[in-house]
Amino acid sequence: MDQAAKCGRGLRRSQIACPSLAVILQLCCEQGNFASAAIACEYRHMSTSPLKIRPATSADSSAITQLLQSITGVWQAEWRPDAVQRSIAAADGLAFVAVEHEQVLGFISGHDLGFRAYLSEFAVAESRQHAGIGTALLHSFESALAQRGCRLVVADVYPPAEPFYLKHGWATPAAILLCPMTTAAQRNELLWCCS
């Protein structure tokens, strides 16, 4: 069995539905980039699926807002009603949606700030989590950043999502997250969240 087949969890190039995926898998293995090869293996199931990852547009705003509001703990009362539209506009090509049968199932949005990038929002419909959608969205975001030459990205992460990030090679930086608390209600909410 050749190195690519071993790396691809026993798959041969002819068994992968997407030819470009097979090439990516082989290149990752040849270069010893087994983490990327593992991600490529996860994509093999999605290559024949009607699920598509594409850039988010302002036309997706309503569906994305509904998605974010449907997931426990994601939508924040302090967000402006047009937060999604603003995020997509400011993302400058770093916002993506996962769409299946015209339904938005996932969203990721980030911003290249020059010194570093910031992943500002990332969510997958609760009923479709653990199906590779988050991995595909994160990979699209990271690939777009790499094409820009941006090597540092940070995110404030909802605690239940931390294992997902760790699984994909992220780590906790030696930094703290601060934000101004302008009202007593905001201070109380922060204390409640962090206790």
Write the topology of this structure:
Layout: H1 3-7, H2 19-30, H3 34-43, E1 52-55, H4 61-70, H5 83-91, E2 95-100, E3 103-112, E4 117-124, H6 133-148, E5 153-155, H7 162-167, H8 184-194
Order of H and E elements: HHHEHHEEEHEHH
Number of strands: 5
Approximately how much helix is present in the residues? Answer: 40-55%
Counting structural domains, the number is 2
Supply the number of helical segments. Answer: 8
Strand content: 15-25%
- Net shape: globular
Examine the coordinates and then state which fold CATH places here, giving the name of the CATH topology of the largest domain: Aminopeptidase
Which sheet architecture does the biggest sheet show?
5 strands, mixed
Category by helix and strand content = alpha+beta
Spans of at least 5 consecutive residues with low confidence:
1-23
Q: What is the residue-averaged pLDDT?
A: 78
| Cross-sheet strand order for the largest sheet | 1-2-3-4-5
Question: What value does the Rg take, in angstroms?
Answer: 18 Å
Could you characterize the architecture of this molecule?
- The radius of gyration is 18 Å and the shape is globular.
- With 195 residues, it is an alpha+beta fold.
- It has helices at 3-7, 19-30, 34-43, 61-70, 83-91, 133-148, 162-167, 184-194, and strands at 52-55, 95-100, 103-112, 117-124, 153-155.
- The protein has a five-stranded mixed β-sheet with strand order 1-2-3-4-5.
- Helix 2 (19-30) runs antiparallel to helix 3 and helix 4 (61-70) crosses helix 5.
- It has two domains: 3-43, no CATH class; 52-194, 3-Layer(aba) Sandwich (Aminopeptidase).
